[in-house]
Amino acid sequence: MSRVFTRVVGVLSGIVLCAGCTSAPQQALRKPLPPNWEMTPPESPSPAKPAPTAPPEAAARIPSTPETGWVAVAEWCRTRGLIAPQPLHPGGAESFTLATPNGVWVLTAGSRIARWDGLELHLGFAPWLLEGELMLHALDLRKNLEPLLGGDGDRAGARGLIVLDPGHGGRNTGTRSVADGRWEKEFTLDWAQRLAPLLAARGWRVLLTRTNDADLSLAERVAFAQRHRADLFVSLHFNAAGKGRSDEAGLETYCLTPTGMPSNLTRGFADELVAVFPNNAWDESNLRWAVRLHRALLTVNGGRDRGVRRARFPGVLRGQHCPAVLLEGGYLSNPEEAQKIGDPAYRQQLAEALARALE
Prior knowledge:
It contains 9 helices and 14 strands. It has about 350 residues and is α/β, with parallel strands linked by helices. It has 2 domains: about 110 residues, Copper Amine Oxidase, Chain A, domain 1; about 200 residues, Zn-dependent exopeptidases (Aminopeptidase). The strands form 3 sheets. It has a 6-stranded mixed β-sheet. A hairpin with a 4-residue loop joins strand 4 and strand 5. It is globular and about 60 Å long. It starts with about 55 loop residues before the first helix and ends with a helix.
């Protein structure tokens, strides 16, 4: 074992992982979800902290393994035949590029926000520097970097079934457009109904969780997909920021947080890292589909990229028994994006972009 690899640092205090764990799924939340969780404004990302030059004291006291601790990225690259990370700027030491056969990563010490092949992707843990060497948590290597070494090419079968889930419905209106006062539930249903025939023409079998202004619970949406043995589940939404934040805009794509990793978004709910949900069996596929669909929608929205993110609280993702992704196609609280979303031609463009990504 090389000198570099022997510097694997202990896992952060309080994070408990059990390799090969076979325990039953746990409830990750200590208090009930709100009926309209999508209407809650997203949290603003915390400012990046300076990268430490030594392991956190608490982490250094805990034994680690390559599966649960911090790993020297250069050593990880060597074992996979990749070139070690290179400084992004000559003489710089905080941002690094990592070239893979299917894309280039940009990793920054002290920041959970990374870029892969030009896309914003949020890590579970911020990388840091140990004696000038980039360290990355083993979970990020396994759940974020390794799944994309082969690109984002996940495919369901030629006769695969995709369940489209138009968010909200009925009394669960979702957020309201600042442009024309219409509700999110109307736009998500129209988006799904435009997308369905495009996917059918490409060989998919397509079902919608709702085809009218019905109010379905998250549990009913999950049960629908499971009852029909879906191969892929895509939940369609539009976003909103808090009061006085009308400038926020762009695309966000979510998949379930892997066990042991902190979420990028909690909306005030407990984020139990040890929780295991049915959909965690598809962690790697979730990410590949999320990246593929996210990239497709960026061709329509002008490249306003708020990233592929992880969240643990959305019940519509947790219980899925197939790859599952939640798309936030733009901000109805932003006047410019709200006006676009209200245009049927723009929603058609969103549908066509997803259809091309799912060919």
